[in-house]
Amino acid sequence: MAACRALTLTALLLTLCNGKTEADPVPLVIWHGMGDSCCNPFSMGAVKKMVEEQIPGIYVLSLEIGNSIPEDMKNSFFLNVNEQVDGVCKELAQNPNLKNGYNSMGFSQGGQFLRAVAQRCPSPPMKNLISIGGQHQGVYGFPRCPGEISHMCDLIRKLLNYGAYTREVQDYLVQAEYWHDPINEEQYRNGSIFLADINQERHVNVSYKQNLQLLEKFVMVKFLNDTMVDPPDTEWFGFYRPGQSKETITLQESNLYMEDRLGLKEMEKAGRLVFLGVEGNHLQFSKEWFNKNIIPFLH
Ligand SMILES: *[C@@H]1O[C@H](CO)[C@@H](O)[C@H](O)[C@H]1NC(C)=O
Ligand SMILES: *[C@@H]1O[C@H](CO)[C@@H](O)[C@H](O)[C@H]1NC(C)=O
Ligand SMILES: *[C@@H]1O[C@H](CO)[C@@H](O)[C@H](O)[C@H]1NC(C)=O
């Protein structure tokens, strides 16, 4: 009898404890954009605070790539993206807070980098992927590279002109790794060591497709008045129609979608792709907009 009561009590406690674990908010992993860092109080620091205000007790990890803030900023230009993704996968796998899964939110280039994490590293599981101004079909220009890092912008343009798809530039320059030249699609397919790989341009890696399907929702936010990303359509996975650089096509009009090389068509049919548009320039949004449109995906 006593043993039985003890067992019942244990079971009850277990239920209570498990119940509590289930009610804990899903952790969030953030990956910042180009020239930014994990912890700038005016960018990712502010985002982390907004999330914590809305979801008390949430665990938020804002990724620092490197061992210091200056390194983190520098690495957003000059550390091979495939190595960055590998490093992040290891970090996430070792973090006990994330073992039951997490949501992720990438800003600008961080959006496509987190998609690579989803496709390459299914454990721990990513639940929702929220891409805020991410460039899923790459870019063909840096029209308004942010002013305070203009020497970086000049260097980037020089290297891209020198030869975006040469091995040296690919290994060295992050932005070359998602440079997408629509006039020379074949060079892009052959030479891009990052974007052409995750977009299944050279061959279909079945595990990329399967892993992406594990997401509950893939949310893509496009800035409707974006003058920094060329073309802004890339934020909804559209791009220039191959062979020229004026006319754009949507994701749904692309071969990637029609052949369903990445499973996006299947995800859309199942209602798991979400396209959000926000008025404003690149990464410009209000707290009200964020709380209303993004916070619901973080619960
Ligand atoms: C497919 O992707 C997985 C996960 O990143 C990788 O381990 C594997 O080598 C890739 N396969 C091919 C054929 O590229
Ligand atoms: C792309 O790679 C294929 C196969 O290796 C090769 O035949 C072709 O010439 C390459 N094209 C360019 C533009 O580099
Ligand atoms: C932003 O873009 C949208 C959609 O193209 C347009 O309706 C709106 O007028 C633009 N807003 C500004 C401030 O330019």
TrEMBL record:
<keyword id="KW-0256">Endoplasmic reticulum</keyword>
<keyword id="KW-0378">Hydrolase</keyword>
<dbReference type="InterPro" id="IPR029058">
    <property type="entry name" value="AB_hydrolase_fold"/>
</dbReference>
<dbReference type="GO" id="GO:0008474">
    <property type="term" value="F:palmitoyl-(protein) hydrolase activity"/>
</dbReference>
<comment type="similarity">
    <text>Belongs to the palmitoyl-protein thioesterase family.</text>
</comment>
<dbReference type="GO" id="GO:0006897">
    <property type="term" value="P:endocytosis"/>
</dbReference>
<dbReference type="GO" id="GO:0005794">
    <property type="term" value="C:Golgi apparatus"/>
</dbReference>
<feature type="signal peptide">
    <location>
        <begin position="1"/>
        <end position="23"/>
    </location>
</feature>
<keyword id="KW-0458">Lysosome</keyword>
<dbReference type="GO" id="GO:0005783">
    <property type="term" value="C:endoplasmic reticulum"/>
</dbReference>
<dbReference type="GO" id="GO:0005576">
    <property type="term" value="C:extracellular region"/>
</dbReference>
<keyword id="KW-0325">Glycoprotein</keyword>
<dbReference type="Pfam" id="PF02089">
    <property type="entry name" value="Palm_thioest"/>
</dbReference>
<dbReference type="InterPro" id="IPR002472">
    <property type="entry name" value="Palm_thioest"/>
</dbReference>
<dbReference type="GO" id="GO:0005764">
    <property type="term" value="C:lysosome"/>
</dbReference>
<keyword id="KW-1015">Disulfide bond</keyword>
<keyword id="KW-0732">Signal</keyword>
<keyword id="KW-0333">Golgi apparatus</keyword>
<protein>
    <recommendedName>
        <fullName>Palmitoyl-protein thioesterase 1</fullName>
        <ecNumber>3.1.2.2</ecNumber>
        <ecNumber>3.1.2.22</ecNumber>
    </recommendedName>
</protein>
<keyword id="KW-0964">Secreted</keyword>
<dbReference type="GO" id="GO:0052816">
    <property type="term" value="F:long-chain fatty acyl-CoA hydrolase activity"/>
</dbReference>
<dbReference type="GO" id="GO:0007399">
    <property type="term" value="P:nervous system development"/>
</dbReference>
